[in-house]
Write a structure and sequence with these properties.
Distance between the termini: 68 Å
Helix content: 40-55%
Strand order of the largest sheet: 10-13-14-9-8-15-16
Largest sheet: 7 strands, mixed
Bound molecules: nicotinamide-adenine-dinucleotide
Number of strands: 18
Radius of gyration: 25 Å
Strand content: 15-25%
Number of domains: 2
CATH architecture of the largest domain: 3-Layer(aba) Sandwich
Structural class: alpha/beta
Number of helices: 17
Shape: globular
CATH topology of the largest domain: Aldehyde Dehydrogenase, Chain A, domain 1
CATH superfamily of the largest domain: Aldehyde Dehydrogenase, Chain A, domain 1
CATH class of the largest domain: Alpha Beta
């Protein structure tokens, strides 16, 4: 596999060549009108529709993802992002007038969103289509040239994306560059105008360091541990169903999956029982036979998650559901644990697999203290019907995003900024926020009248001018 892979990798020479031709072409592409960009996005949408069955097959071949799960969590996200951009791009591109302060009377100002230029997108494997092509939609909407490196772990999806993009764009505008860490590192030596990276915080730091060499701006969509609080007022059945789906969709390999739970003592038994029941409803009593339940992407990630569970169990954690591991299939049954020690890997590392630790609490301040003591999460979920508790949780924590009474669905809300904060990410994506990430907000000011207030305050600084300056400081 490694050999086949390296044969398909884009060579260093080719990478240099593509970068150069994109640099030469960037102003032609950047000059495009809203109508021209919308036409490109429409063709992009058509290509996704035309290739749906190949995309489904690729995702199945990569990690046994059910076609409906591919439709819901890969294709729908891209078509949603495309339709949103097609609908709103004209408005996004329009110059935005801003107010004029009194001291600058006689001038007019507006914000002009111009493309960053030539951008790099580096994607992860866990939603290999969605997280590669989603940022690309924003890059195209903003009028950039782009080089896109999908993950080397999901080759079937990577190939179909390459085929599709080659049929839509010439490489001097958009190019898919295949390869692994070496390819990524070669790309990172080039002076891109912007780098959009989705992946782990550890690699995010490497990307940011490389970007600093050329002072490229970055958007870092990273990961981490997203907590979920289920308080005593929550609807047990709704919480159980939505947490089970949000956690076990894509086999738990979701950056915004609920990573660990805090459940109030009053409802813990009812909730746990309901969660176990829901897992059977979603994936049957034999999830290994369920077509709806996908697999860990590879044996390295399978072994990593297994080692977390083994360590927790050897330190007293109890498996109350699942706990079945099949090495040859990278299969881990949907697993629930209680009594997990706070210092265990399961409570310290991002789990990124179908394993959910359930902690309990008596006083809401207990989970809030734990959450605040950790890195800022990418998502924080609240299951509650108490306005007071919801307000307190939002006020006393920080998170990239929060959903109340559901899990992971904010990813679909293109009117909200998506992204983390510090360790969980820098910058935002989706909809207008994605367009902004790939644009430079150029401030343009025009002196419209023959004179301005500032003209009256230029040297030499006579007594009258000093008075005028002081007057301005005091009143304007
Ligand atoms: P990763 O960081 O290992 O890899 C991501 C990309 O970086 C891949 O294309 C890979 O080839 C490249 N890469 C890996 N090592 C590199 C290096 N040393 N130098 C340069 N490039 C390198 O992440 P992953 O395992 O593919 O994905 C899982 C991680 O991504 C999780 O932490 C998850 O939370 C996070 N994630 C975040 C989001 C989000 O939107 N915030 C979405 C999905 C995944």
């Amino acid at each position: 596999m490694e050999n086949i892979r390296s044969m398909l990798d884009t060579s260093q020479d080719e990478i240099q060549k593509i970068f150069k031709i994109q640099q030469q072409r960037q102003y032609d592409i950047g000059r495009s009108t809203a109508a021209e960009r919308i036409a490109k996005l429409k063709r992009f949408h058509q290509a996704i529709t035309d290739n749906t069955s190949q995309i489904r097959q690729a995702l199945y071949d990569d990690f046994r993802k059910h076609p409906s799960e591919t439709d819901l969590t890969e294709i729908y996200c891209i078509t949603g992002e495309l339709k949103h951009a097609i609908r709103h791009l004209k408005k996004w591109m329009r110059p935005k007038r801003v107010a004029t302060p009194i001291a600058l009377l006689g001038s007019g100002s507006y914000i002009h969103y111009e493309p960053k230029g030539v951008v790099l997108i580096i994607a992860p494997w866990n939603f290999p289509l969605n997280l590669t092509l989603g940022p690309l939609v924003s890059a195209i909407a903003a009028g950039n040239c782009a080089m896109v490196k999908p993950s080397e772990l999901t080759l079937h999806t990577s190939h179909i994306m390459k085929k599709m993009i080659e049929s839509l764009f010439s490489p001097d505008e958009i190019a898919i560059v295949e390869g692994g860490v070496d390819t990524s590192q070669t790309l990172l030596t080039l002076p891109f105008n912007h780098i959009f990276f989705t992946g782990s915080p550890a690699i995010g730091k490497i990307v940011m360091k490389a970007a600093s060499k050329h002072l490229a701006s970055v958007t870092l969509e990273l990961g981490g541990k997203s907590p979920t609080i289920v308080d005593e007022t929550a609807s047990v059945s709704t919480a159980a169903r939505r947490i089970a789906w949000g956690k076990f969709v894509n086999n738990g390999q979701t950056c915004i999956a609920p990573d660990y739970l805090f459940v109030h003592n009053k409802i813990k038994d009812a909730f746990t029982e309901q969660l176990q029941k829901t897992l059977e409803e979603l994936y049957s009593t034999e999830p290994e036979k369920s077509e709806s339940y996908c697999r860990m992407v590879n044996n390295r990630h399978f072994s990593r998650v297994k080692s977390y569970v083994d360590e927790a169990v050897s330190n007293g954690a109890k498996i109350i559901s699942g706990g079945i591991f099949e090495n040859n299939q990278n299969y881990i049954a949907p697993t629930l644990l209680t009594d997990v020690k706070p210092d265990s890997a399961l409570m310290q590392e991002e789990i990124f697999g179908p394993v959910l630790p359930i902690n309990t609490y008596e006083d809401l301040d207990e989970p809030l203290k734990v959450i605040r003591s950790r890195e800022i999460p990418l998502a924080l979920y609240i299951y509650s019907n108490s306005r007071k508790n919801i307000k307190k949780i939002i006020r006393d924590t920080r998170a990239g995003g929060t959903v109340i009474n559901h899990s992971v669905v904010h990813f679909y809300q293109n009117n909200l900024p998506f992204g983390g904060s510090n360790n969980s990410g820098i910058g935002k994506s989706h909809g207008f926020f994605g367009f902004q990430a790939f644009s430079n907000a150029r401030g343009i000011m025009k002196q419209e009248l023959p004179f301005s207030g500032i003209d009256l305050m230029m040297p030499p600084y006579t007594e009258l001018k000093k008075k005028l300056i002081n007057f301005s400081i005091k009143w304007f």
